[in-house]
Amino acid sequence: MNTYYAANLLIFAGVDIIACIALNLQFGVSGIVNFSFIVFQAAGAYAAAVLSMPPDTAADYSFQIYVGGYQLPFPLPWIGGAVVGGLLAIPIGIVVLRKLRSDYQAIALLVTSIIANTVITNARPFLNGAAGLALVPQPFQDQIDTATDTYQYVYIGLTAVAVAIVWFVAARIVNSPFGRSLRAMRDHELAATAIGKNPVALKMTIFIVGGAIAGLSGAILVGFLQVWAPSTWLYPETIILFAAVIVGGRGNNLGAILGALLVPVGFEEVTRLLIRLNIGPPNLIPALEWVLIGLFILGFLWFRPEGVRPEPRRVFEGSPEPEVERVRAA
Amino acid sequence: MSLFVAAFGFGLVSMSVIALAAVGFTMQFGITNMINLAYGEVMIASAYVAYYIDQTGISIWVAMIGGAIFGAVFSFLINRFIYAPFMRKGTANLGMVIVSLAVSLMIANLLLPIVGYYSVSYRERFGSIVRLGSVVLTVNQMLIIALAVVVMLAIHALLRYTRLGKAMRATAANPTLARSSGIPTQRVIDIVWLITGALCGLAGTVAGLDSETFAIASGAGFLITALAAAVLGGAGQPYGAMVGAVVIGMVTELSAAAWSPDYKQVVAFGILVVVMVLRPQGLLAKRGALAAAG
Amino acid sequence: MSAQPDGPMLVAEDVRRSFEGMHAVDGVSLDVPRGEITGLIGPNGAGKSTFLAVLAGTLPASGGRITFDGEDITRVPAYARARRGLVRTFQLPSEFAKLTVLENLLVAAPRHRGDSLLGALMGKRYWIADEKRLVEEARGLLHRFGMSAKESDYAGMMSGGQKRLIEIMRALMLHPRCLLLDEPMSGVHPRVIEEIQHYLRALRAEGLTIVMVEHELHLVEQLCDSVFVMAQGKLIGSGTMASLRRQREIVDAYLVG
Lengths: 330, 294, 257
Fold this sequence. Notes:
The complex is a heterotrimer.
Chain A: H1 3-29, H2 37-52, H3 76-96, H4 102-122, H5 124-127, H6 149-174, H7 177-187, H8 189-194, H9 199-225, H10 236-248, H11 253-276, H12 284-303, H13 323-329
Helix pairs in contact in A: 1-6, 1-9, 1-10, 1-11, 2-3, 2-9, 3-9, 6-9, 10-11, 10-12, 11-12
Chain B: H1 2-32, H2 39-55, H3 60-88, H4 93-115, E1 129-132, E2 135-138, H5 139-161, H6 163-173, H7 175-180, H8 185-210, H9 218-232, H10 238-258, H11 264-278, H12 280-284
Antiparallel strand pairs in B: 1-2
Helix pairs in contact in B: 1-5, 1-8, 1-9, 1-10, 2-3, 2-4, 2-8, 2-9, 3-4, 3-8, 5-6, 6-8, 9-10, 9-11, 10-11
Chain C: E1 10-19, E2 22-32, E3 37-41, H1 48-56, E4 63-68, E5 71-72, H2 78-83, E6 86-88, H3 101-106, H4 117-122, H5 124-144, H6 160-172, E7 178-182, H7 190-205, E8 209-213, H8 217-223, E9 226-231, E10 234-239, H9 241-245, H10 248-256
Parallel strand pairs in C: 3-8, 3-9, 6-7, 7-8
Antiparallel strand pairs in C: 1-2, 1-4, 4-5, 9-10
């Protein structure tokens, strides 16, 4: 296994972990079925790209058309990606989250995702349309030769730092009284309103936080891949992440990580292996992979809706043992 | 100017296609309480069934019946073996949305290895041209409009004048009450899946014929247009969906003439957003589903 | 208008609520006396639960005015009414199923330092003092309502009667001035009904104002100081249960309804 392969694997894993933690905050903890999740990752990626690229009039870049082009140094593009992801959540949240019933919210978000992709694909002057952006600069590429192993380690390190920060933020939210309010809203929104929680404010808050984290994940991805196009963020990509959170365990941050490793990363690796070993016709495997993801979702929702690692039960200091446990022990 | 007259003609065709799709979609929701996100993929699957029949030399207008039958049986089976069990298990509406999206993904990707990635066309995609003043339509397009009118009248007659239609309306309004007053709601729901599935299959074939070429990837677009018309007319209400189809069909074609055909779905979506912002409660309220039928 | 210590706790003036042309609540005016248990009765579909929801703000009023402890709250959203001390419960079980019993109580506590995004990000040390105090308070309530042993069980696993108790305790965590209870004893084991009655009397003795929608007239008779009768969205009578039983048209409304 060469360094580039390892870097590829680890960075994808890091990006998927970050994305799944964010989706878990929205879906697992707060009950928002954000079917346009991938749009926030894409927004972060585009933002990071145009913040770090030179203007589209620059010599090597004139074959594409895009807005911006500010040549900002790291870490500004990553921060910018997170900010744009969070900002994008405001208008979408205002339209979708305020008055619609939760299942209509999910559908409105799905439609938003499909339409956003259509718009970006067709509106070429904005972000170079269907062809997407290429030659996106990498962090520190002027200081370190990106073709070296050292650079791969640096990028893995940067990704790891981002994962740690996101984990820290998510853990603080989930384990706080604020997280408890989010979980209460998820379990029974009207009852939460009746005890003084403002569900619109709670949803908007977590929508923005999740959007920012998703944006960061996109920024990390685009810095590594150096390309970003509408075909990389079609709406089924969101479904993979949902599958990951459902499999891993809704409401559990560790579950989100486990899900990220099992579903997006695991599937990617298995597909790569099968194709390399020449098992089955090459375009059959990706299709079957999607079918399998659908089956995973249905299977887990049917047999184990709480996932591999269920949401932990919060037992407080000095509490008697849960009744159920005692019965089981007896 | 004549561009807009022509667009008006296309609008008539578009609204016919959308109406066929949207009425089935909205009835599924109104009567069985299921927002079926796999609807667009079932449309595509049915369009392919009609395509294979068409390829054997049988006219598309006959093959269309094959598409409708396939749509009916397929929808019925999806409900029987996936949706209904999940609903019986007490899965919330939100969970059902995830289930149906997963089903949609599975259908699309089970189809892919069978039908391939590339677009296909029916043999009859170009018909001879008919001129009505400055409106220019093909014979196919005229037949599509006629078909939609006939089907809409049939739906109206079904809901208004038959016992089945009354049972459907009663089930939509209050399933528990309907059951306790002796309506076999389970059978009604089965029949609803067959009828709406047939509409879905028919709509898929007609959409394939109208758009000249189609591929697996067309499913999402089909779903969005049907959804937009259904939502605009008040989700769950067939007459509303017909009105929604008229509006969406006309507006998208006129905007395509004025602006760019790439943005048809975007315009439909724009209408959707405006409605969601301006009157969100009234718009999607299920109350009175099917009530307009009398 | 300022709060008057002896004035009514809650005043409804010509309150209306319609659903697409149907008048579920059709111009109800009433005063809820302070520190008493007030019953709200009427046949099925009389609009009692809708009226209660309009008072709590979980359904917006289509017309009229609602005054809570001297303050006009007609335009105040439901969550803000709850924070001001007007707290409702629900007819159907409405526990937070995947929270433990203790968490169901804690989550209702107002003004918790850790109950905002910033507070959460500040970390445990920032809010642990509040948390400890509230755990203490919640455990007091659990003890009083005889549910201490269940504190770490999921609320979703509790029986119907226990869920009722959880809901009442949860409401009490807000230190309400007025409780609006929607059939708090429906679907509850007779023994637990007695318990709930006992708790409600004790709360009244502490000065809490309670409004309850109830179907079982004998329970209303035992508990309520005064009673309002609704039929077809309108208020058709009020008084003590004993005096209402003597009014012909009210008995008729019940039998017909």
